[in-house]
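Predict both folds.
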Amino acid sequence: MTLVTKDEATRIAAAIAEAEKATSGEIVAMITAQSSSYAYVSVMWAAIAALALPWPLIAWTWWPIQTIYVLQLLAFALLAVVLSQRPVRMRLVPASVKRARAHRRAVEQFLAQNLHTTAGRTGVLVFVSVAERYAEILADAAIHKLVPESEWQAIVDRLTAAIAQGRAADGFIAAITDVGVRLARHFPPGSANPQELPNHLIVLPPE
């Protein structure tokens, strides 16, 4: 699953390169189809349902316990298969859990992409997780303390609105441009402005 085509990814890469011309900061754009498999969810709900099944059968029928036990096993197996289908499974995951897992993956990738090691501590990650319908901007210490959280959130809100309208690439480009403006305001390019991080859109495999 992806929100952008190959041509749109090229446009996003060009937007990153253009934004970084005006700043010594670094911008990384990243998208993943899903931040977690949530495999445990289908098993958990199937187990709960299977554990509840015997009680009404014991109370309201004369079926032997062996029959009820077999039905319990069959119910668990059937539900585990049905609930493991991704659209069904995702609906069973609480929104707070999905947000927490997507945020955790964003933080993991911020570190994995070495955004915390740039020379001026001015790395910024624009992160989107599709299945969780989650977007976030993570900024390193130097730029984070200079830009109010409300400004980052406003950029995220515009990005998620564009994605909801089917304009994911335009949303990414606008977000990258907005991030670049804030980086340029506080960290203009110096005499030495090495390219420390990749400019292309990073597409992560789902977990």
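Second protein follows, with its predicted structure tokens after the sequence.
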Amino acid sequence: MRRLCGFALGFALLTGAAAAQTGGLRPSQDAAPVAAREPDLAYGAYQRGLFITALREATARLARDPEDAAAMTLLGELHNQGLGARQDPAKAAEWYRLAAKRGDARALAALGLMAIDGRGMDKNLGQGKAWLEEAARKGEPAASYNLALLLLTTGAQADLLRAVELLRIAAEAEIGDAQHALGALYLRGRGVTRDPAEAARWFFKAAGNGSLAGEVEYAILLFNGEGVPKNEALAARYFRHAASNGNAIAQNRLARLYAAGRGVPKNLVEAAAWHLVASSQGLADTWLDGALRDVSPEDRARAERLAAERAGVL
């Protein structure tokens, strides 16, 4: 989930095969990476990957206006990730604190995650949650998403219902991870009435916003004809895209499709190749082991070469 630093608090809600392929509490990859929303030299440089320039321009902005919270947040981000400057979480937290005191919602969200993770400061779940709450109140969708993940771990019905609404806010802001999580709730009927069609709608949106887990869940629904018309060929296309981007679940499912000739022409070399790639990520499959037992030595060697090529680009 340009991305900010990931954080380790797990998200146990995610359902189905895709759950094993997603991370936990973290800023979503779909959220804007820094506080500055308006076009400016510092933010533009950050977006283009010119991090030394971004550092210089953000520093210049502060020289012109010592109360520039957006510049402070950008400096915090650069130090947090070690972009254009030495990675220094403690220094990042200092910049985030200065920006948060001036009401910057993204700085508050970043501080919340750092406190939860114990990064750049002592670990403090309560303080982290409080910062996320404040950021969410200020309309920061990534904070709503991460706060929802926290609430989903409590087991309390009131927290579950609030988590649904927070996820909806983040999902409507086009955060792919939130769209996937909301789809998972609809698929399981947790906190909402079970609705596979609504789950499919959110998984489809998540896939469009770069969520591989959402893409895999949508492909599974397509293959099974649950919530959407059954379409094995289209499911195979989604699996192939996610597989090519490193998702082990998709690699495994694509291997099974090739082994069975479902949605794609039967091809045991392709099946073996994708099975090898998925297995290299720790995803074993005894059914595929049996289905591919009689592959010839020549075809197995071809599959191994294909697997090596694919693993090299993932």
